[in-house]
Design goal:
Length: 111
């Protein structure tokens, strides 16, 4: 009887990791602060935290508490609901961009 040789299994292509919430939040907070023409120190002072801590939040290095997020949102004159919705929209947009890139890559490989 002939030996059965298993076919190599095709591994799924590695997926790009989804962006972290803290990265999307930080990006949005920095954008809002820049739109207002403010320095880190200005916003941090109104929010009641140090400029260094706000900088770490904006760079996605800290996982701020909900109280800290609310304080920074208030300092930027946005509600927590508005901020949360905007971060969710940004994440949806990023996910859509990744999907389009994935589809384009699939079409390129099929060609």
């Amino acid at each position: 009887m002939a030996e059965i040789i298993p076919l190599p299994t095709k591994k799924p292509a590695p997926r790009e990791p989804e962006p972290l919430w803290r990265d999307a939040l930080g990006d949005l907070l920095r954008r809002l602060r820049h739109e207002r023409g403010e320095r880190l120190a200005d916003t941090a002072d109104r929010a009641g935290l140090s400029p260094q801590y706000l900088s770490e939040i904006e760079r996605g290095l800290k996982e701020p508490s909900s109280e800290m997020i609310a304080a920074v949102a208030g300092a930027l004159d946005v509600t927590l609901v508005e901020l949360t919705a905007a971060v969710a929209d940004d994440l949806r947009t990023r996910a859509g961009e990744r999907a389009v890139v994935g589809v384009r890559a699939a079409y390129a490989l099929a060609a």
